[in-house]
């Protein structure tokens, strides 16, 4: 994207939008409406890991043909959750290969008898390769964890008078190979004096535990046979009016009518339109503002879409409601603009990670994390290093937490990972990320990779292609990582991995880092990672590494360096990390990565208070119109 002209770019976005998706069909978040029903399949599933030498016994014996208990012992497995930390069997914690999940469901009679109803099976995520059978019939395959996939199973359930019992079998393989995302390698250790025959290990090149399984919700939902398949919305602002450009795709019939209405937060209709595309104008618009950036909150409208269609079985209608935040995003040489105003990212990097459930989605954890973010005065996070659950993105829209949406392009460390098959898959994953998250006002930028080995010859072409593809998918948002991007994100660990213990060097080294990058590329910079390993409760003063005092001092030095460039071209800072998280075992990790400012149990280390004071101070300095924000968590505490 051209560097200078933010205005032209913002205007072009909505016009170019939506022409390049190669995927079949949309991926709207399932919702209940007068025309749609949902049936959640969360809870206990039957489970078995295939411990056979080649891990293929399940396929050889066709475990999907009959109830799983008939082919051997099963255990209870909660969904959503990672399977790794649930049982007392250490082999399961470290298991690499195929695991099998199964669940029986009774369907409402209408779903099986009414031929104007379409029944869809949707899996929120399955890490990392999944095959799905319904009543023993091969139905669906999907590659890649962290993103949803679904199949129309109407013809499997609408087959006779009473087939209301459904058996869903899902086989999931967590093996990472040079062509998966993230990639990995399997290494066979053949020295028989040290390893038994056939011994292998999974090598990965990233710093988080490769939790796996059905980590997000599985559900069944219905639509009519002619249905709203996808909605794409982009927004812009013209004087005091908001413009909402919509594009709707309908499947099942060409004989339909579409009506759209935009409602404000009080459910008052503020604009309406008809047809598959159009522009809605909202005079006196309430903009979507990031948390603490404006005295107005993150305002959400609702786009109600109503479809009526004629089918051979009679008329059908479908209803879908999409939350819409009206805002603009643009980048200049030295600023990141939201609604035309400079935005400074003061936030965190996260992981979807907590005890026992691993990366399993969990409402209490989600709400706690958002309460902590607001307490901290954080206005942004990066979804390091993979897309988070859809419910997380919805919370960001509602709370005004700005998101840099990162795909699982992490650990791209070896030359063999930059091959054509990987490139194709990486582009496909970006399509799936954009398709899923394109309508979230909170998402302001796509991140295509974390720390790829961009110096390798094979990486240059690969990364350029992924970035160009992402831009063609969504010209309305900037793209980050590596130098061929709109905003430069820098991870650095001065006085931690380099010159460790020497806090006095941070300011100098940080200044050199910023100046070199800015001189070369003249693009805004975000310090996208910095931090120090800290074991809660370790104290030493003067500070020594791993203590709470060292983490605090390191942060203080970084902040002095950041403040030098903050009003120039540095547009953000994201601490590594929000909370401690699990990694593979290694001599440099003590029960995981401890760079959190909160523990894995979400209790604060001393640095959390330091960061909190800083973030509220920055929020108050950068607020529009200038006013003092009150901490919502401590009534009588003002950070000015
Ligand atoms: C960064 C990586 C991140 C690691 C972090 C660390 O992007 O995934 O967890 O280092 O070492 O370079 O703590």
Largest sheet at a glance?
8 strands, parallel
Ligands bound, unique: beta-D-glucopyranuronic acid
Distance between the termini: 37 Å
**How would the global form be characterised?**
globular
Q: How much helicity do the residues have?
A: 10-25%
Secondary structure category: alpha+beta
Mean pLDDT over the residues: 93
Per DSSP, the total helix count is 12
What order do the strands of the largest sheet run in, or round the barrel if closed? 27-26-25-24-23-30-29-28
Strand content: 25-35%
Topology:
Blueprint: H1 6-16, E1 38-40, E2 43-49, H2 57-60, E3 75-79, H3 90-93, E4 98-106, H4 109-113, E5 117-123, E6 129-134, E7 137-143, E8 149-152, H5 154-157, E9 165-173, E10 184-188, E11 200-204, E12 218-224, E13 227-238, E14 241-251, E15 256-263, E16 269-274, E17 277-282, E18 301-311, E19 314-324, E20 329-331, E21 336-338, E22 341-342, E23 345-349, H6 363-376, E24 380-382, H7 390-399, E25 402-406, H8 420-437, E26 443-447, H9 457-473, E27 479-480, E28 488-491, H10 506-521, E29 525-529, H11 548-565, E30 570-575, H12 606-621
Helix pairs in contact: 8-9, 10-11, 11-12
The structure holds beta-D-glucopyranuronic acid (BDP).
Beta-D-glucopyranuronic acid is lined by residues 206-207, 385, 450-451, 491, 529, 576, 593, 595.
